C-alpha cells in the first residue's frame, strides 16, 4: 500500500453492497450506481432508480447504505439505510390527509413482505406543489410526493431491503406490487450510459 491509499473496505460492508445488486428487477424499474455521500459514515454506497411507464418517468429515488464499524447514535447496529423517493401525483391525491400515513405504510409493509428485518425506522412524507409565474405562468401546476426514510437493517444481506424500496417506488408511481407467486421479467434495456452494474 502506498501513502494516500485508503485501506480496503471491511468484508461485511463489501458483502452488503454486493447484495444490493439484484439478479432481477421489475421491468418498470431501472437501477444504476450513483455517488454516495462521504461524510455520513466511514463507508457508503448508493444506487439510484427510476420508474417508467412506457417512456414516462413516474418516480425517482436513491438508496444509500452507510457502514460504521463502531456504529452511530440511533443506528442500532453498524449499518444504516437511507432512502429517498419522489413521484408525481394527481392534486386530489396529495390533498388527502391520509397520504402521509399511507405512504409510510408502503415502506413498512414492503419491508415486512420481503422479510427485511429492520429497527429504528424514521422518516418524513412531504407533498410539494409547484406553480409557474412570470414567463412560466403557462406551465401546468405539478404536485409531488417525497418520502425520506432511514432504518437499520438487522442482517447483512440487503437484497430484501432493495426489493422493498423498489416496491415502494412502484407504489408511489401508482403501479401495484407483483403478487408473491409472479416473477419479474428481466429489466428492459434503455439507452443509458451508466447502467446499474451487476
The number of strands is 6
Q: Strand sequence of the main sheet, in spatial order? A: 1-2-3-4-6-5
Q: Please, how many helices?
A: 4
Shape: globular
- Multimer state: single chain
Which structural traits does this protein have?
198 residues; alpha+beta; 6-stranded antiparallel sheet; 6 strands; 33% strand; globular; disordered C terminus
Structure commentary:
There is one protein chain. With 198 residues, the protein is an alpha+beta fold. It is built from 4 helices and 6 strands; from the N terminus they run αββββααββα. Strands 1-2-3-4-6-5 form a 6-stranded antiparallel beta sheet. Helix 3 runs antiparallel to helix 4. The longest helix has 15 residues.
Short account of what is shown:
The protein is an alpha+beta fold and 198 residues long. It has helices spanning 11-18, 91-94, 99-113, 159-172, and strands at 29-34, 43-53, 56-67, 79-89, 118-130, 142-153.
